[in-house]
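Field log, afternoon session.

UNIT: design team B
ACTIVITY: writing a sequence onto a fixed backbone
BACKBONE:
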């Protein structure tokens, strides 16, 4: 099967047809209509087999995750996802694999009304690159650079499950089948916090999604905003699986450094704190305050109201200190 036959058979079958897409798959470029008084946010992520997902991961999970990690970036900007383009490299044409992959892509796109508008298909080692675009009201996007000393630090959901799944994949040690399934779902099928990101536009001073680990991503906010932070370790939200499967110290390190959570990390001023918590109370996931920004330009941690030191860093490409 040739490239254009693959595109026609698999990638043109999406149900979503947005009114602002004037020309989709099939031409040299897609054409979308501009929207008055809205800003466009754009992000690109690549997933490589054996690096960003374990070898043997199901095709549906790969398709879902490829879309989810991009929509998570869109969510961190407070935007509404609109369009994606997909470049996929596959070693060979396998109808069953491609059908399952497209199922994972289209299922998430349909849920968020996102249209696949183009891309590229090539032969080679398995990798998936998606460029996603979204819309925010003019001047209302979130960024990493607005945090101030005194702002409160929040995260959505629970942290560490995906890292626990990866650790188990590399060296199996979990014995409870329900726990294994739960953490594997968090690794394979992350949930981008799109609605929560849009709800945060009126309240958050900065935001980022947690892809490289809580410490690493909080460090990005600190650097961009020229501030420091203190994390209260005993406030970090973790699932029952994490609490039951690890010693406390190991669980905390996974939650701090593991990555692949795709939850939102954001800061809120004292004045906006109550209003934000009220606004997000029905947005689909819990939010937890885990610390406060300060003027030190460093990240410190406390446990039981006492300062503690920690080791480790988040995932960083081309680093000799990679942890995930």
């Amino acid at each position: 099967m040739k490239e254009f036959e693959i595109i026609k058979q698999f990638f043109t079958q999406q149900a979503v047809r947005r009114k602002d897409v004037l020309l989709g798959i099939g031409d040299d470029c897609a054409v979308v209509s501009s929207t008055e008084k809205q800003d466009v946010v754009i992000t690109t992520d690549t997933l490589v087999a054996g690096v960003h997902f374990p070898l043997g991961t199901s095709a549906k999970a790969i398709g879902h995750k490829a879309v989810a990690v991009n929509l998570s970036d869109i969510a961190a900007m407070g935007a509404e996802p609109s369009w994606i383009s997909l470049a996929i490299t596959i070693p060979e044409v396998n109808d069953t694999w491609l059908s399952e992959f497209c199922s994972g892509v289209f299922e998430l796109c349909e849920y968020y009304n996102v249209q696949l508008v183009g891309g590229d298909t090539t032969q080679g080692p398995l990798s998936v690159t998606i460029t996603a675009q979204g819309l925010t009201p003019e001047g209302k996007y979130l960024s990493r650079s607005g945090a101030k000393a005194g702002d409160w630090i929040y995260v959505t959901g629970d942290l560490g499950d995906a890292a626990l799944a990866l650790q188990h994949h590399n060296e199996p040690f979990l014995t409870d089948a329900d726990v294994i399934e739960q953490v594997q779902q968090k690794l394979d099928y992350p949930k981008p916090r799109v609605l929560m990101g849009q709800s945060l536009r009126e309240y958050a001073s900065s935001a980022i999604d947690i892809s490289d680990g809580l410490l690493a991503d909080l460090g990005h906010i600190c650097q961009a905003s020229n501030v420091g932070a203190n994390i209260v370790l005993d406030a970090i939200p973790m699932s029952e699986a994490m609490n039951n499967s690890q010693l406390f110290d190991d669980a905390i390190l996974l939650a701090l450094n593991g990555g692949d959570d795709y939850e939102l990390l954001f800061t809120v001023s004292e004045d906006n704190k109550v209003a934000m918590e009220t606004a997000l109370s029905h947005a689909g996931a819990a939010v937890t305050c885990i610390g406060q920004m300060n003027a030190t330009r460093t990240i410190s941690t406390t446990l039981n109201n006492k300062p503690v030191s920690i080791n480790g860093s988040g995932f960083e490409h081309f680093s000799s200190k990679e942890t995930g």
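LOG NOTE: The two ends are 36 Å apart (CA to CA).
NEXT ACTIVITY: expression trials, pending approval
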